[in-house]
Design brief:
Oligomer: heterodimer
Largest interface: A-B, 69 and 73 residues
Low-confidence stretches of chain B: none
Structural class of chain B: alpha+beta
Low-confidence stretches of chain A: none
CATH topology of the largest domain in chain A: Multidrug efflux transporter AcrB transmembrane fold
Radius of gyration of chain B: 32 Å
CATH topology of the largest domain in chain B: Multidrug efflux transporter AcrB transmembrane fold
Number of domains of chain A: 2
Mean pLDDT of chain A: 88
Distance between the termini of chain B: 30 Å
Helix content of chain A: 55-70%
Strand order of the largest sheet of chain A: 2-3-1-4
Structural class of chain A: alpha+beta
Order of helices and strands of chain B: HHEHEHEEHEHEEEHEEEHEHEHHHH
Strand order of the largest sheet of chain B: 3-4-2-12
Distance between the termini of chain A: 25 Å
Order of helices and strands of chain A: HHHEHEEHEHHHHH
Number of helices of chain A: 10
Number of strands of chain A: 4
Number of domains of chain B: 3
Shape of chain A: elongated
CATH class of the largest domain in chain A: Mainly Alpha
Strand content of chain B: 15-25%
Helix content of chain B: 40-55%
Mean pLDDT of chain B: 78
Largest sheet of chain B: 4 strands, antiparallel
CATH architecture of the largest domain in chain A: Up-down Bundle
Chain lengths: 297, 455
């Protein structure tokens, strides 16, 4: 099986991608959205003509709402990012944006989140991340509870976890780039996407590992690397096909779906893609590598 | 033969469910207005981000309330706000208390969803206003009424009649549980029924006992709205204001009484408003993405898996009908994230079929007949199917537990999708496949049951 023969190349690709992701996360940083840090987001669309950005900026500055970020959206609209606003302040903002009512606008959405709500959501997100990770690790432990040779059971589990980390890190790295260049923000959907990736991609690895152990028991091949290769041969088509169907619907969601779930769909697509990649090109080669190291000792 | 009848029954049932989904959707059914109420009452329930509307989060200040009474007060608060919102004419508002729990440090919150309301200024004003409801008794005769002439020397007669005539009691709107509109059984005259809570009942009993034959005036924001005469002591906390009401007047009074009783002070923490156009666009985009996603999968399944693929597509159609009907019947509130969950579940739903077909193919390669391969393939694929869905279900459950309404929508549609699809993909496909696998072993059947680029 060429994947096993060239395992170092494929593991290498994964390592490079992970390093690339970590670098992109640490350089670009993830912009935290108002879901978590609190703040207000106002989206307006002008009916006739969009006022000049600099002009609006100076008018908004006079409101003393702290720092206000004005982003053009579409042909006729602006997105205004500011600290959280109460009703009176919100009214003032709209008045300023409409240039005292002279320039008719429609408020498409307004979202103001108080800092305490943001803090609570952050706490909840962290708890959810911990819980899902724990549950997935427990699930992996359960799936690999039976001891098998020549690689002991917990190593299968550990490699499954490693490939999971790989599956989540790369989309997050990708998101950091999106965050930098397109202003994508870390919001609740981002957390949901990351957690859903964990749930979706772990199964692939487990199914392939199961096949390896089944073939080991039945002594299908003579050596461990050959058995792993044979197992991969038997399962890579279904692995790719099952992920492909999910990726196809995700792409359709990305291209045609609602604006609010675009980044969500993109992140999940990346997660599914690298999840499949890792179960075929990373997890199984790693297993063979571990077995080789064991032999050398 | 039996199997074929079973397959036919399932097909008919599936069409029936799809028919229900179609009939109960106003946009799909041109005759919607003339349908029976069963169809009319089951449209999809859209979340605020799709229907447009406002989502408000209030913090409730419960510091002045005794520890044991907090949850009672919060429920009372919810009822009051719910009534106020209903008065505002909002269709299907959602008002719920969010328990603090250990995550948010015991802070009590009230969440108000107002579909279709984007003019939140007005709505928040109405929710947040705290009109004061008071019960006053006649001023004892031995207490003189003090009348001060104003600067011009005139005496304000109105002040004598209204304010000075009565003195305050401890009974306020805080203790009013609810007011209801009633009709006298004999005269059909409208009446206003009052129900106090426990403390209010005691206070009211004392007040009525001391004031039999006198007036107990009900003041709203300092103005008397009703001045009934007490006939006897009322110990059960129930009072009826009967007067010469016309129905609309009585209804208005009930509304005002209910809105007067806000048991816990609240402050607005956050609000989210989505314009109707934005919501509409999201719905269209979501539907478009779902349809395109479905078509791509159907195409892929038929091209790659041939005959079994076609059956998987039929099973997928039945799955879609079932899940959409469930969304309507339960009902599930659909959000953009919820639609995303549903769309992803389309992809996951065929996973089980793919696992089965790949296994069937393998069994055929190892020399089994088509019929044999199908039945062995099904039983051997089950463990993989179970394993590959378990982790998704675990994630969905935790997300549902943790979630805000946005995330709950996603977790629910995804979780339901995975569960229902396990059923549909395995059972339905199996029944259909065994119904048609009567065919004798031939090159054609082997071709039809093969997949990919093989011949």
């Amino acid at each position: 099986m060429f994947i096993i023969k060239n395992k170092k190349i494929f593991i290498g690709i994964s390592i490079v991608l992970i390093i690339f992701s970590i670098v992109s996360i640490s350089i670009f940083r993830l912009k935290v959205g108002i879901d978590f840090k609190g703040g207000a987001l106002t989206e307006v669309v002008y009916k006739d003509a969009r006022p000049d950005q600099a002009e609006l900026n100076s008018a908004l500055g006079a409101l003393n709402f702290g720092s206000i970020l004005l982003q053009p959206t579409g042909d006729m609209g602006y997105i205004v990012k500011s600290r959280d606003l109460n009703e009176a302040e919100h009214g003032l903002l709209l008045k300023t944006l409409s240039q005292d009512g002279k320039n008719i606008l429609e408020e498409k959405s307004f979202n103001s989140i108080g800092p305490s709500v943001g803090r609570e959501l952050t706490k909840k997100a962290i708890i959810a991340i911990i819980l899902v990770s724990l549950a997935i690790i427990l699930f992996i432990a359960y799936a690999f509870r039976k001891v098998s040779k020549p690689v002991s059971s917990w190593r299968y589990g550990l490699i499954a976890v490693v490939s999971l980390l790989h599956d989540v890190t790369i989309p997050i790295g990708l998101f950091a780039i999106l965050s930098h260049y397109y202003g994508a923000e870390l919001d609740t959907l981002f957390v949901v996407a990351a957690l859903t990736i964990l749930g979706l991609s772990v199964s692939d690895t487990i199914v392939i590992f199961d096949r390896i152990r089944e073939n080991l028991r039945n002594r299908v091949e003579t050596s461990f690397p050959k058995t792993v290769g044979k197992s991969l041969e038997q399962s890579y088509v279904r692995s790719i096909c099952t992920s492909l169907t999910v990726i196809l619907v995700l792409l359709s969601l990305f291209f045609f779906g609602p604006v609010s779930t675009k980044y969500f769909a993109l992140m999940l697509t990346a997660g599914m893609f690298f999840g499949t990649y890792s179960s075929i090109f990373l997890a199984s080669p790693l297993l063979v590598l571990v077995e080789e190291w064991q032999k050398k000792k | 033969m039996k199997k074929r009848i079973l397959a036919l029954i399932i097909l008919i049932l599936g069409v029936g469910v799809a028919f229900f989904v179609f009939k109960s959707e106003p946009k799909l059914n041109p005759n919607f207005e003339n349908q029976s109420s069963f169809f009319k009452h089951h449209p999809f329930r859209l979340g605020l981000d799709l229907s447009g509307g406002s989502h408000l989060i209030y913090k409730a200040d419960v510091s002045a309330i005794k520890a044991g009474e907090v949850s009672g007060s919060m429920n009372a608060l919810r009822d009051v706000i719910e009534r106020r919102v209903n008065l505002f004419g909002v269709s299907e508002p959602v008002v719920q208390v969010q328990e603090g729990g250990f995550v948010s440090g015991g802070e009590k919150k009230l969440i108000v969803d107002l579909p279709g309301i984007t003019d939140v200024e007005k709505a928040t004003e109405m929710i947040g206003q705290t009109p004061l409801l008071e019960f006053k008794i006649e001023r004892p005769k031995d207490q003189p009424i003090t009348i001060k002439p104003d600067k011009s020397g005139k005496i304000d007669i109105g002040a004598i009649n209204l304010e000075q005539q009565y003195v305050s009691t401890d009974l306020t709107g805080r203790y009013l549980k609810k007011a209801t509109l009633e009709f006298d059984q004999n005269t059909r005259e409208p009446k206003v029924g009052l129900q106090f809570d426990d403390t209010g009942t005691k206070l009211f009993a004392q007040i009525t006992k001391d004031n039999v034959g006198k007036i107990v005036a009900i003041f709203l924001d300092g103005a008397p709205i009703s001045t009934p005469v007490v006939r006897e002591e009322i110990p059960d906390g129930q009072a009826v204001i009967s007067g010469n009401f016309i129905p609309t007047e009585a209804k208005q009074l009930v509304g005002r009484l209910n809105s007067g009783a806000l048991p816990v002070p609240i402050t607005l923490l956050s609000r989210q408003t989505i314009g109707a156009i934005l919501g509409d666009n999201a719905v269209h985009a979501g539907v478009k993405a779902a349809i395109i996603g479905f078509l791509i999968i159907a195409l892929f399944l038929i091209l790659w898996y041939r005959l079994p693929g076609l059956i998987a597509v039929i099973a997928l159609c039945i799955y879609i009908s079932i899940i959409l009907a469930l969304f309507k019947l339960l009902p599930v509130t659909l959000t953009a994230a919820g639609i995303a969950g549903f769309i992803i579940s389309l992809g996951i739903a065929v996973d089980a079929n793919i696992l089965i077909f790949e296994r069937v193919k393998e069994e055929m390669r190892s020399g089994r007949t088509v019929l044999d391969a199908v039945s062995t393939g099904f039983s051997r694929a089950w463990f993989s199917i179970r394993d590959s869905n378990t982790s998704s279900i675990i994630t969905a459950i935790i997300l549902f537990w943790f979630g805000t309404s946005l995330i709950k929508g996603f977790a629910l549609t995804l979780g339901m999708g995975v569960l229902v699809s396990m059923l549909s993909a395995i059972t339905i496909t199996r029944i259909f496949l065994s119904a048609i696998s009567f065919v004798v072993e031939s090159k054609l059947t082997r071709f039809l049951f093969s997949s990919g680029l093989s011949k």
